[in-house]
Write a structure and sequence with these properties.
The structure holds two protein chains of two kinds.
Chain A (H helix, E strand, L loop, with lengths): L2 H43 L7 H13 L16 H15 L4 H12 L14 H27 L8 H11 L3 H5 L1
Chain B lengths: L1 H22 L20 E2 L7 E2 L9 E6 L4 H16 L4 E6 L3 H11 L5 E5 L3 H5 L7 E5 L5 E6 L4 H17 L1
Parallel strand pairs in B: 3-4, 4-5
Antiparallel strand pairs in B: 1-2, 3-6, 6-7
Classes of the chains: A mainly alpha, B alpha/beta.
Chain lengths: 181, 176
């Protein structure tokens, strides 16, 4: 057999093994494709229907930051309450009128108060809200440090008083009867 | 040592205290940022005579109430008898803001339940409602002589609210 023939044979063997691997991978690829398909579908659904995708995305972003006052645990974006729909329309109209995001949010705060903001501003009345978690962590660390220090300074074995020492000696000697009295 | 053991108890009692106080607060009552601010301007058609309009500027110099109502609003029926009596007593003019309602349905509703309003105006699309920070009908505002909002009642007016808050404030504002 010539050298060329040998290499041809090994090439054929290679191709066969690639096919075998591909065949084995195929189900895996299918599973991945199926798993990803909802994401693709969702992404397709989320494409804004308005004419201007940028303005639409801004409207969505603003509405997502504001709390619906009728159903308080939903944003204006999520809620289907009439007021939320009206406020979404307001946001769209104001964007179309060239207002900035801040102007639109200020408009809402002027009417409904800080309560419409899901992220409340840092103020004297909200400082505890903002600093609270850090404060609690700080207190936790202080307590931890104190506990650790106390444990370290504590003697390994508490020293016995002279009286206790004597009693131990007595017990070890087997002179328990006297101790029980 | 005994003092140390008391700390969790004190913390627990404080927590229970806060939670207990929270039981009696209505989370739906959002304090209005408009208290003390000038009443938002509007010019709206009157319900009974759409050719005529009314706005806060027409009412300057007197204390008045703005009551937000609608024929579709269920709890408006609760407060309505009280409003009718208040209107009959002629203590203070009540302006009705017919909020997101069909004018025909609003007129029918007033004919059936009585009309306590000196004037009702039509806020068909709810824009004026948004300007006034309305989020739950019924709502009632007290506006002073200078045209500033002094009080906001969220939800139906109760006898208690009328006696302890609304009427005393109206009388005080009328004197000044």
């Amino acid at each position: 057999m010539s050298a060329a023939g040998r290499s041809q044979g090994s090439a054929a063997a290679n191709a066969a093994s690639v096919r075998a691997v591909a065949k084995r991978l195929m189900p895996l690829l299918l599973v991945v494709a199926i798993a990803l398909s909802p994401i693709v579908l969702l992404a397709a659904e989320a494409v804004p229907t308005d004419k201007d995708p940028v303005a639409s995305a801004r409207a969505v972003a603003i509405a997502d930051k504001l709390r619906c006052l009728v159903c308080q645990n939903q944003t204006i974006l999520e809620s289907n309450a009439e007021l939320a729909q009206d406020l979404r329309t307001q946001i769209k109209q104001q964007i179309a009128a060239g207002k900035s995001d801040k102007e639109i949010i200020d408009y809402m705060v002027a009417r409904y108060g800080d309560f419409v903001l899901y992220q409340p501003p840092v103020k004297t009345t909200t400082i505890l809200l903002w600093a609270g978690p850090a404060l609690l962590v700080g207190i936790g660390f202080l307590v931890l440090a104190r506990t650790v220090r106390l444990r370290r300074t504590q003697p390994e074995e508490p020293a016995l008083t002279a009286e206790e020492h004597e009693r131990v000696e007595r017990l070890l000697r087997g002179d328990g009867a006297k101790d029980a009295s | 040592m005994a003092k140390k053991l008391l700390i969790p108890l004190v913390v627990f009692v404080a927590l229970v205290g806060f939670l207990f106080a929270g039981l009696f607060r209505d989370p739906r009552e959002v304090p209005s940022p408009l208290i003390g601010k000038p009443a938002p301007a509007f010019t709206l058609a009157q319900l009974h005579d759409p050719a005529k309009t009314l706005g806060p500027t027409d009412l300057k110099g007197q204390v008045w109430l703005l009551n937000v109502w609608a024929s579709w609003c269920v709890s408006c029926r609760d407060e309505h008898p009280l409003l009718v009596e208040l209107g009959r007593a002629k203590i203070v003019p009540i302006v009705g803001l017919n909020y997101k309602d069909e004018p025909a349905a609003g007129l029918k509703w007033l004919a059936q339940n009585g009309d306590p309003y000196s004037v009702s105006v039509v806020d068909r699309d709810g824009r004026v409602g948004i300007d006034w920070g309305v989020y739950g009908v019924p709502e009632t505002f007290i506006v002073d002589k200078a045209g500033a909002i002094r009080y906001k009642q969220i939800g139906p007016i109760t006898v208690e609210a009328l006696q302890t808050k609304i009427l005393p404030l109206v009388r005080e504002l009328q004197k000044s």
